Amino acid sequence: LNRVTSLFARRSFNIESLAVGTTENPAISRMTITMAGDQERVRQMTRQLYKLPDVLMVRHLNPVDHFSRELVFIKVSANAANRTQVLQIVDIFRGHIIDVSPETITIELSGKEDKIEALQALLEPYGILELVRTGTIAIERGQQVMNVTGSDHPSANDHQEVSDETDLQNR
Asked: Looking at residue 91, which CATH number applies to its domain?
């Protein structure tokens, strides 16, 4: 993780979103990175990422061929006077209530960035007390899979120790 983020910093690329987690293979972690840039900048970063010793695969995901989502938890003030309005807003966005107290409601929502930002904007007048948000995660549509033991990576067979798999999205 440190090597990847350091590479972005050294090359003056801005990471807009970063999510890291395990995969179907517990020996492999997957990083989903969202960055701004044209195709040439994405190609340049892809070449640089492949130079890192533990990077097994870099895949550019275009907006048409994948699903992507973020997750947010929002704790909002919701007393007896405004609780109904807050619940109606959450329902419109198909959010889930994960905790309720006499003065607060905690909401869970997954979706595209604009959906999360729209919910946040509507809840701000009620008083957002706490907000935590993940980076974007993504997966390709259909039967296409990221297979680190396949031919997608030019030197996949050269790596004895498996540790990182990287998605690269651009806006």
From this structure: 3.30.70.1150
| Residues of the domain holding 94 | 68-133
pLDDT tens, per residue, the chain with 171 residues? 899 999 999 988 889 999 999 888 888 889 999 888 888 888 899 999 999 988 999 988 877 888 999 999 999 999 999 999 999 999 999 999 999 999 999 999 999 999 999 999 999 999 999 999 999 999 888 887 876 654 444 443 333 233 344 566 555
93 and 55 in a single domain? The answer is no
CATH code: domain of residue 164: 3.30.70.260
Secondary structure (DSSP) of 47-88 = HHHHTSTTEEEEEEEPTTSEEEEEEEEEEEE--TTTHHHHHH
Residues 87, 59, single domain; the answer is no
Q: Are strands 96-100 and 164-170 parallel, antiparallel or unpaired?
A: unpaired
CA distances from 112 to 6, 63, 167 (A): 27, 12, 17
Shared domain for 102 and 147, answered yes or no, is no
Both 72 and 129 in a single domain? yes
Closest CA to 161 of 56, 71, 64, 76: 56
**pLDDT value, residue 168:** 61
* Among 1, 24, 21, 39, CA closest to 171: 39
